[in-house]
Amino acid sequence: MRLLVVGAGSTGGYFGGRLAQAGRDVTFLVRPPRAARLRERGLEIRSPHGDVTLQPRLLTAAEIGGGTAQPFDAILLTVKGYMLESAMDDFAPAVGPETMILPVLNGMRHVDRLKARFGGAALGGCLCKCATTLDEEDRIVQLSGLQELAYGEMDGRSSARMQALDAFMTNAGFDARLSPVIEREMWEKWLLLASMGAVTCLMRGTVGEVEAAPGGRDFILAVIDEVQTIISTVGMPPRETTIEAVRALLTTKGSPQTSSMYRDLQNGRPVEGDEIIGDLVKRGRDAGIAAPLLAAANIHLGVYSSRQGGCR
C-alpha cells in the first residue's frame, strides 16, 4: 500500500513519521517552505515512546500537479479545517478511482465537503487521539503517551480495502484500530472537542481552573449538555459511557488539561473555531436548538479570529 500524508505538522508528521520509521511506503505532501525545512533538518519527533529523526519522502502540490506522482492507494488528510479547500486542490491529482481518503479533521463538516468533491465511495472514516504540537524548532513533540488511530468504513461494513489498511497500520509504533462504528466515534470525538474547546477557550483556563471557579462545574456540565443535545439531534447520539467519560474528564479537580484550540489561541495561531464550535452552533440553530453557551464561545473565537486576520 502506498500512503500519501497530506501535511507534516504535529499530527500528520507524527503518525506518518511512525509509519515511515516502521518501513511503510509513506510520502508527505507539504508546502515548499516545509519541504525545504524537512530536507534540511529531517522530520524530528520527540516522544515518550522514543525520539526519532527521519529523512521523509516528500512531494509538493506542483510536483503532483505536474504529473510526477501516480495515484496513491490511500490519503491520510491531516490539515486544519480552515485549510481543507486548498488541500483538496493540492492532493486531487493524486486521487485515482481506487484511492481511499482518510480525514482526521475535527468536527464533521469536512465529511460533506470531501464527499461533494470526490464522491462518497472514496471516503473512509478516521479519527486520531494524540496530543502533539510543533515546538519553536519545528520538532513534533508528543505531550502524552496517548497515540491512537482508528479507521473504518462509514457504513460499518467490512471491506477488503479496510483490511489492507489495517494490515498497513498495525505494528507501526502506535495503537491502530479497525472500527465497525467509526462514524459514531467521529461524532463522539466532536462531543469532547467542542465541549473542551468551548470551556477552555471561553474561560481562558485549564479544566481544573474552570472547575474550581465559583459555578465552574455547573458551567462545564451545561456546555456538555448543549453539545450532546445538538449532536444527538443532527448526528449520531453518543453512547452513555462516552458522555459520562467526557463529564468526568472535564470536571476533574486540578486537571491541567486544555484543548488544542486553546493552546493555539494562547500562542496567537489561527484556530478551528468555525469547524469545532461554529458549525455545531449552526446545525443546532437549523434544528431549532438554542445553545447560548456555545454561541457565546463561538462569538468569542470569532472576535479573536478577526483580530488574527479572519482565519478560523
UniProtKB/TrEMBL annotation:
Its taxonomic path starts at:
Bacteria, Pseudomonadati, Pseudomonadota, Alphaproteobacteria, Rhodospirillales
Q: Which organism does this record belong to?
A: Azospirillum endophyticum
Write the protein's name: 2-dehydropantoate 2-reductase
What reaction does this catalyse?
(R)-pantoate + NADP(+) = 2-dehydropantoate + NADPH + H(+)
Q: Does the keyword Oxidoreductase apply?
A: yes
| Enzyme Commission no | 1.1.1.169
Output the PANTHER family linked to this UniProt entry.
Answer: 2-DEHYDROPANTOATE 2-REDUCTASE, PROBABLE 2-DEHYDROPANTOATE 2-REDUCTASE
- Pfam families per UniProt: ApbA (PF02558), ApbA_C (PF08546)
Residues making up the signal peptide according to the UniProt record = none
Q: To which protein family does this belong?
A: Belongs to the ketopantoate reductase family.
Identify the keywords attached in UniProt to this record, alphabetized.
NADP, Oxidoreductase, Pantothenate biosynthesis
InterPro entries recorded for this chain? 6-PGluconate_DH-like_C_sf, 6PGD_dom2, ApbA, KPA_reductase, KPR-Related, KPR_N, NAD(P)-bd_dom_sf
- Residue ranges occupied by any Ketopantoate reductase N-terminal domain in the UniProt entry: 4-155
Please give the NCBIfam families that the UniProt record associates with this protein: apbA_panE
- So what does this one do? Catalyzes the NADPH-dependent reduction of ketopantoate into pantoic acid.
Task: From the UniProt record, give the pathway where this protein acts.
Answer: Cofactor biosynthesis; (R)-pantothenate biosynthesis; (R)-pantoate from 3-methyl-2-oxobutanoate: step 2/2
Residues covered by the Ketopantoate reductase C-terminal domain: 182-295
Q: Which domain of life is it from?
A: Bacteria
